[in-house]
Amino acid sequence: MSQLYVLDHPLIQHKLTYIRDKQTGTKEFRELVEEVAMLMGYEITRNLPLEETTVETPVTTAKTYMIAGKKLGVIPILRAGLGMVNGFLRLMPAAKVGHIGLYRDPETLQPVEYYCKLPSDIEERELIVIDPMLATGGSAAAALTLLKNRGAKQMKLMCLIAAPEGVKTVQEAHPDVDIYVASVDEMLNDHGYIIPGLGDAGDRLFGTK
Ligand code: URA
Protein backbone atom coordinates (compact mmCIF):
# COMPACT_ATOMS: atom_id res chain seq x y z
CA MET A 1 0.00 0.00 0.00
CA SER A 2 1.24 3.46 -0.78
CA GLN A 3 2.22 5.68 2.10
CA LEU A 4 0.47 8.93 2.95
CA TYR A 5 2.83 11.57 4.35
CA VAL A 6 1.33 14.63 6.02
CA LEU A 7 4.12 17.21 6.02
CA ASP A 8 3.68 18.87 9.38
CA HIS A 9 6.69 21.20 9.26
CA PRO A 10 5.68 24.34 11.21
CA LEU A 11 6.46 26.64 8.26
CA ILE A 12 4.25 24.60 5.94
CA GLN A 13 1.38 24.60 8.43
CA HIS A 14 1.76 28.33 9.19
CA LYS A 15 1.70 29.30 5.53
CA LEU A 16 -1.19 26.95 4.82
CA THR A 17 -3.29 28.93 7.28
CA TYR A 18 -2.79 32.09 5.20
CA ILE A 19 -3.43 30.13 2.00
CA ARG A 20 -6.79 28.94 3.37
CA ASP A 21 -7.81 32.43 4.53
CA LYS A 22 -10.44 33.91 2.19
CA GLN A 23 -8.97 37.37 2.84
CA THR A 24 -5.68 36.40 1.16
CA GLY A 25 -5.53 38.01 -2.28
CA THR A 26 -4.22 36.55 -5.53
CA LYS A 27 -0.65 37.88 -5.33
CA GLU A 28 -0.10 36.70 -1.79
CA PHE A 29 -1.90 33.40 -2.41
CA ARG A 30 0.37 32.66 -5.38
CA GLU A 31 3.51 33.53 -3.44
CA LEU A 32 2.47 31.40 -0.48
CA VAL A 33 1.60 28.39 -2.64
CA GLU A 34 5.01 28.68 -4.29
CA GLU A 35 6.75 28.88 -0.91
CA VAL A 36 4.86 25.87 0.45
CA ALA A 37 5.67 23.91 -2.72
CA MET A 38 9.35 24.64 -2.12
CA LEU A 39 9.12 23.51 1.52
CA MET A 40 7.22 20.37 0.51
CA GLY A 41 9.78 19.71 -2.21
CA TYR A 42 12.50 19.89 0.44
CA GLU A 43 10.76 17.13 2.40
CA ILE A 44 9.89 15.02 -0.65
CA THR A 45 13.49 14.96 -1.85
CA ARG A 46 14.82 13.94 1.58
CA ASN A 47 15.66 10.39 0.43
CA LEU A 48 17.40 11.17 -2.84
CA PRO A 49 20.50 9.00 -3.06
CA LEU A 50 23.87 10.65 -2.47
CA GLU A 51 27.30 9.77 -3.78
CA GLU A 52 30.62 10.64 -2.27
CA THR A 53 32.86 13.12 -3.97
CA THR A 54 35.71 15.44 -3.02
CA VAL A 55 36.13 19.17 -3.29
CA GLU A 56 39.14 21.42 -2.79
CA THR A 57 38.37 23.93 -0.08
CA PRO A 58 40.79 26.87 0.35
CA VAL A 59 42.45 24.76 3.07
CA THR A 60 42.41 21.12 2.04
CA THR A 61 40.53 18.35 0.26
CA ALA A 62 37.11 17.63 1.75
CA LYS A 63 35.14 14.43 1.34
CA THR A 64 31.59 15.57 0.48
CA TYR A 65 28.35 14.38 -1.08
CA MET A 66 26.30 15.15 -4.14
CA ILE A 67 22.96 13.85 -5.41
CA ALA A 68 23.73 10.65 -7.28
CA GLY A 69 22.60 11.48 -10.78
CA LYS A 70 18.91 10.98 -10.06
CA LYS A 71 16.83 12.52 -12.82
CA LEU A 72 13.64 14.21 -11.68
CA GLY A 73 10.55 15.31 -13.54
CA VAL A 74 7.76 17.57 -12.32
CA ILE A 75 4.31 16.99 -13.80
CA PRO A 76 1.65 19.54 -12.85
CA ILE A 77 -1.96 18.69 -13.61
CA LEU A 78 -3.45 21.75 -15.32
CA ARG A 79 -4.37 24.28 -14.27
CA ALA A 80 -3.88 24.58 -10.52
CA GLY A 81 -0.79 22.36 -10.51
CA LEU A 82 1.08 25.17 -12.28
CA GLY A 83 1.06 27.19 -9.06
CA MET A 84 3.37 24.73 -7.32
CA VAL A 85 5.93 24.19 -10.10
CA ASN A 86 8.22 27.18 -9.58
CA GLY A 87 8.59 26.55 -5.87
CA PHE A 88 9.78 23.04 -6.61
CA LEU A 89 12.09 24.25 -9.38
CA ARG A 90 13.79 26.67 -7.01
CA LEU A 91 15.20 23.58 -5.27
CA MET A 92 15.69 21.43 -8.36
CA PRO A 93 16.28 23.85 -11.24
CA ALA A 94 17.37 21.10 -13.64
CA ALA A 95 14.18 19.05 -13.27
CA LYS A 96 12.22 18.65 -16.50
CA VAL A 97 8.58 19.73 -16.50
CA GLY A 98 5.72 17.90 -18.23
CA HIS A 99 2.09 19.01 -18.35
CA ILE A 100 -1.14 17.05 -18.22
CA GLY A 101 -4.56 18.57 -18.88
CA LEU A 102 -7.71 16.66 -17.96
CA TYR A 103 -11.35 17.65 -18.00
CA ARG A 104 -14.32 15.80 -16.62
CA ASP A 105 -16.75 14.49 -19.24
CA PRO A 106 -20.13 15.93 -18.19
CA GLU A 107 -21.97 12.71 -19.05
CA THR A 108 -19.66 9.94 -17.86
CA LEU A 109 -18.03 12.17 -15.18
CA GLN A 110 -14.76 10.45 -16.13
CA PRO A 111 -11.52 12.46 -16.61
CA VAL A 112 -10.61 12.91 -20.28
CA GLU A 113 -7.13 13.95 -21.46
CA TYR A 114 -7.02 17.18 -23.49
CA TYR A 115 -3.31 17.96 -23.23
CA CYS A 116 -0.19 15.96 -22.53
CA LYS A 117 3.40 17.00 -23.15
CA LEU A 118 6.05 15.05 -21.28
CA PRO A 119 9.85 14.79 -21.14
CA SER A 120 10.93 12.12 -23.66
CA ASP A 121 12.67 9.97 -21.05
CA ILE A 122 10.01 9.73 -18.32
CA GLU A 123 10.78 6.04 -17.78
CA GLU A 124 14.22 7.05 -16.43
CA ARG A 125 12.94 9.81 -14.16
CA GLU A 126 11.42 9.97 -10.75
CA LEU A 127 8.26 11.98 -11.39
CA ILE A 128 6.62 14.31 -8.90
CA VAL A 129 3.01 14.69 -10.00
CA ILE A 130 1.44 17.89 -8.66
CA ASP A 131 -2.25 18.41 -8.00
CA PRO A 132 -2.87 20.94 -5.21
CA MET A 133 -6.39 19.76 -4.32
CA LEU A 134 -6.88 16.00 -4.08
CA ALA A 135 -10.67 16.03 -3.99
CA THR A 136 -12.35 12.92 -5.47
CA GLY A 137 -8.92 11.74 -6.64
CA GLY A 138 -10.33 11.02 -10.12
CA SER A 139 -8.00 13.38 -12.00
CA ALA A 140 -4.90 12.43 -10.03
CA ALA A 141 -5.56 8.71 -10.46
CA ALA A 142 -6.19 9.21 -14.19
CA ALA A 143 -2.99 11.27 -14.56
CA LEU A 144 -0.95 8.57 -12.82
CA THR A 145 -2.48 5.91 -15.10
CA LEU A 146 -1.75 8.02 -18.17
CA LEU A 147 1.89 8.43 -17.06
CA LYS A 148 2.29 4.70 -16.40
CA ASN A 149 0.86 3.97 -19.86
CA ARG A 150 3.54 6.23 -21.30
CA GLY A 151 6.33 4.45 -19.44
CA ALA A 152 6.62 6.14 -16.03
CA LYS A 153 8.07 3.76 -13.45
CA GLN A 154 8.59 5.83 -10.32
CA MET A 155 6.16 8.50 -9.16
CA LYS A 156 5.16 10.50 -6.11
CA LEU A 157 2.02 12.60 -5.80
CA MET A 158 2.31 16.03 -4.15
CA CYS A 159 -0.86 17.87 -3.04
CA LEU A 160 -1.51 20.81 -0.79
CA ILE A 161 -4.80 19.55 0.67
CA ALA A 162 -6.45 16.16 0.33
CA ALA A 163 -9.91 14.84 1.14
CA PRO A 164 -10.00 11.33 2.63
CA GLU A 165 -11.99 10.20 -0.44
CA GLY A 166 -9.20 11.35 -2.78
CA VAL A 167 -6.50 9.62 -0.79
CA LYS A 168 -8.50 6.37 -0.86
CA THR A 169 -9.12 6.56 -4.61
CA VAL A 170 -5.44 7.12 -5.42
CA GLN A 171 -4.18 4.52 -2.96
CA GLU A 172 -6.54 1.88 -4.34
CA ALA A 173 -5.70 2.64 -7.97
CA HIS A 174 -1.97 3.20 -7.43
CA PRO A 175 -0.67 1.35 -4.38
CA ASP A 176 2.89 1.98 -5.62
CA VAL A 177 2.61 5.81 -5.50
CA ASP A 178 3.30 7.60 -2.21
CA ILE A 179 1.23 10.72 -1.49
CA TYR A 180 2.61 13.87 0.15
CA VAL A 181 0.17 16.47 1.48
CA ALA A 182 0.19 19.44 3.83
CA SER A 183 -3.23 18.51 5.23
CA VAL A 184 -5.92 15.85 5.05
CA ASP A 185 -9.17 17.74 5.52
CA GLU A 186 -12.56 16.52 6.70
CA MET A 187 -14.61 15.73 3.63
CA LEU A 188 -15.97 16.76 0.24
CA ASN A 189 -19.17 18.76 -0.04
CA ASP A 190 -21.91 18.09 -2.62
CA HIS A 191 -20.13 20.27 -5.18
CA GLY A 192 -16.85 18.39 -4.87
CA TYR A 193 -15.11 21.08 -2.81
CA ILE A 194 -12.83 20.06 0.02
CA ILE A 195 -14.13 21.08 3.46
CA PRO A 196 -12.72 23.25 5.00
CA GLY A 197 -10.23 23.48 2.11
CA LEU A 198 -9.32 26.77 0.49
CA GLY A 199 -11.93 27.17 -2.23
CA ASP A 200 -11.04 26.78 -5.90
CA ALA A 201 -7.26 26.64 -6.09
CA GLY A 202 -7.10 27.54 -9.79
CA ASP A 203 -9.35 30.58 -9.38
CA ARG A 204 -7.44 31.79 -6.36
CA LEU A 205 -4.08 31.35 -8.10
CA PHE A 206 -5.06 33.06 -11.32
CA GLY A 207 -7.60 35.58 -10.09
CA THR A 208 -10.49 34.08 -12.08
CA LYS A 209 -13.99 33.25 -10.95
N1 URA B 1 -10.52 21.69 -6.57
C1 URA B 1 -10.32 22.86 -5.92
O1 URA B 1 -9.72 23.78 -6.45
N2 URA B 1 -10.83 23.00 -4.68
C2 URA B 1 -11.49 22.02 -4.05
O2 URA B 1 -11.91 22.19 -2.91
C3 URA B 1 -11.68 20.79 -4.75
C4 URA B 1 -11.18 20.66 -6.01
TrEMBL record:
The gene is upp. Pfam families: UPRTase. Its EC number is 2.4.2.9. GO terms for molecular function: uracil phosphoribosyltransferase activity. PANTHER family: ADENINE PHOSPHORIBOSYLTRANSFERASE (PTHR32315), URACIL PHOSPHORIBOSYLTRANSFERASE, CHLOROPLASTIC (PTHR32315:SF4). Keywords: Allosteric enzyme, Glycosyltransferase, GTP-binding, Magnesium, Nucleotide-binding, Transferase. Its cofactor is Mg(2+). InterPro entries: PRTase-like, PRTase_dom, Upp_B, UPRT, UPRTase/APRTase. 5-phospho-alpha-D-ribose 1-diphosphate binds at residues 79, 104, 131-139, 200. This is Uracil phosphoribosyltransferase. Residues 6-208 form the Phosphoribosyltransferase domain. Allosterically activated by GTP. Pathway: Pyrimidine metabolism; UMP biosynthesis via salvage pathway; UMP from uracil: step 1/1. Binds 1 Mg(2+) ion per subunit. The magnesium is bound as Mg-PRPP. It is an enzyme of class 2 (transferase).
